[in-house]
Amino acid sequence: MEISSKENTQLFSNNTILPADRSSFKSESSASKEKQSCCGGIKIFLGALSFVYFAKALSGSYLKSTLTQIERRFDIPSSLVGIIDGSFEIGNLLIIILVSYFGGKLHRPRIIGAGCLIMSAGTFLIAMPQFFMGRYQYERFPSTLNSTASISPCLQDKSQTSLSALEKSQGKINTGCEKEAGSSMWIYVLLGNLLRGIGETPIQPLGITYLDDYAIEENAALYIGCVQTVAIIGPIFGFLLGSLCAKLYVDIGFVDLDSVTITHKDVQWVGAWWLGYLIAGVISVLAGIPFWFLPKHLPKPERRKDSSTSSEQSKFITEDNTDQHKSYQQQVKIAEMAKGKSIEFLSWLLNFLPSLKNLFGNPVYILYLCASIIQFNSLIGMVTYKPKYIEQQYGQTSAKTNFVIGLINIPAVAFGIFTGGLIMKKFRINVLGAAKLSLGSSFFGYLLLLSLFAMGCENSDVAGLTVSYHGTKQMSDYEQALFSECNSGCACSKNDWDPICGEDGVTYVSACLAGCQASNGSGKNTVFFNCSCVGTLESPSRSSSAVVGPCQKGNECPKMFLYFLVISVITSYTLSVGGTPGYILLLRCIKPHLKSFALGIYTLAIRVLAGIPAPVYFGVAIDTTCLKWGSKRCGGRGACRLYDSSALRYVYLGLTLVLGTVSIFFSVAVLWVLRKRSSPQDETLSANGERGGCGTKSRKDNFVHSDHLIQTTYWPEKETRL
């Protein structure tokens, strides 16, 4: 009986334990399934967001690579190109507040998907003028346009020109005047870029917050780091795509390429700039598709279900109890007064103004903000016109220029950003050390940039512009100097730009101004003979010949271009190293509950005071170095045909260095304030975050919990540190 009772007792106990084991097994299996679904959903979102970052970075960098092509295609000055480039920032600013405030309350993935569609629509709109404004017409003498008529370039006897040729020429001018409205179609490029800015707006704030909300806390930094890494890869492919399209003729598929009498090395060459926008638009559409099928909410990880805030956020909230408690009481009092929208706005306003006053009362934040604004003016202006500078200074083609920037400069920027974060993490550098590292990288970067003044090319010898027809340096009025005794008998126009290269190695603005009496051949193989101005430098008594196209730069120019590339890559790397420490400095020197607000003000200031104006005034300054302006068919100034190489070098590099030097002074002021606040009597006060200061004491625990801020640093226009 005892045995049977024991067996029954054991059997009963086993039966009672078994359901508990099953229930625990079920809970574990459900938890694992939930974890798998959570991880699966967040990884799908991570892949989709990374692809979107790649798409927007590709289209943005491709726009930079086509600015010189757009300038020639629409016959507009550099200052207008700068306005087109800055329109992206304007579009972004139009809705950034609405997206940031309302976006988090709506379906974030679908808003990002809608943004991708808007971004792709803007990209397609940029390419649309190519299909409506007619074929590209460059300036060429009729004999080089595969014409069978033998026409003398120097129209000494106008009766020798056949009536049909003149009528055709006049007909082309009239047709051009009728289509002159097409030159104003650059407005569609501006509107398309504006639309790109609007569509790009929700990607960063909504995408990053979605990742941070539903990812496991220790994985959030890794995920955001992956997204930013892909964002660096995008510009590489953007510039390489620009290099490929620049080799293709603008009207490829619409005209017979054998009839094109210029090559991609010609200053009048315009590549298939529109083709890359179609490709980028398709990529943007594909990138937005997955977001329409993602849920509004993903299951949160188990660790985050118990609290709505992360450990770091809760730590931030408890660091400043008095201010937060007062702010909360103030909100409660106002909420009890009424529930209307106007009262809610008043509540927000009452919190906004003290926060703004507190932020602007922080000397470190204000000084660093000023330093960043001025430095980004320098960097954005420099990068926007870097392709133009390489083309005009070193005589390189647009295709080669974009290839070099995409394959050499941008990887150096990415490596510099990674190095800066690695140094901060490995050596556990505090705030004061971050300020020193940021200042040092800026100082040595701009010091290296100073050496580029000695690595320029001299002006090409262009008769009547950089040298006279007698070989002396040209100092008088350029337009009047185009005419000389050797071409006085020719009926030439000073507005033409159809350069030819004489046997004497001098470039002449046109065959007529070179005094050429005859021509042989057609198209690219046209040769001009009996040119009275060619050869006057060496043997005035003998006339010589010339070929189509400008002469190449001096023999030293390829070597100087190689030196420029080496210094440019080192400079890009050096400047990029300081970006991460500077961003950490910004985060550490403001009160925790003001971080989001401070970053928003920082981004807004960079976009408004640097992203928009820098390309414009850099373009205006570059326009002052133009020696020969093109002419539109119905009158008016077109795009610049020839720049003064020396003046361009001093204006472009000088403006960059002046702005960079001013930013360094502000960075020194930041370091001085930090040193002052890190003194023993102020250390306790600084550590508590009072008076807007920041403590420079190295706190290992705080730094360890904040490592993800180093790994995921991002600042506006990061890819512009070229």
Explain briefly what this protein structure is.
The chain is mainly alpha-helical. The protein is 62% helix and 5% strand. It folds into three domains: 39-141 and 184-293, Growth Hormone, Chain: A, CATH 1.20.1250.20; 356-458 and 555-679, MFS general substrate transporter like domains (Growth Hormone, Chain: A, Up-down Bundle); 459-552, no CATH class.
What can you tell me about this protein's structure?
Residues 480-535 form the Kazal-like domain. It is a single chain. By secondary structure, this protein is mostly helical. It folds into three domains: 39-141 and 184-293, Growth Hormone, Chain: A (Up-down Bundle), CATH 1.20.1250; 356-458 and 555-679, MFS general substrate transporter like domains (Growth Hormone, Chain: A); 459-552, no CATH class. The chain contains 26 helices and seven strands. It has helices spanning 2-65, 67-73, 78-102, 108-127, 163-178, 186-200, 203-214, 217-247, 273-288, 302-305, 311-319, 321-337, 341-360, 363-384, 386-394, 398-426, 431-450, 478-481, 557-577, 579-588, 595-611, 613-623, 645-677, 680-687, 700-705, 707-711, and strands at 500-502, 507-508, 516-520, 527-531, 544-548, 626-631, 637-643. The strands form two sheets. It has a five-stranded antiparallel β-sheet, with no helix packed on it. Helix 4 runs antiparallel to helix 6. Residues 1-31, 33-37, 157-174, 307-324, 681-693 and 696-722 have low confidence and may be disordered.
Q: What characteristics describe this protein?
A:
mainly alpha, glycoprotein, MFS_dom, Growth Hormone, Chain: A, disulfide bond, globular, 3 domains, 62% helix, transport, transmembrane helix, 5% strand, two-stranded antiparallel sheet
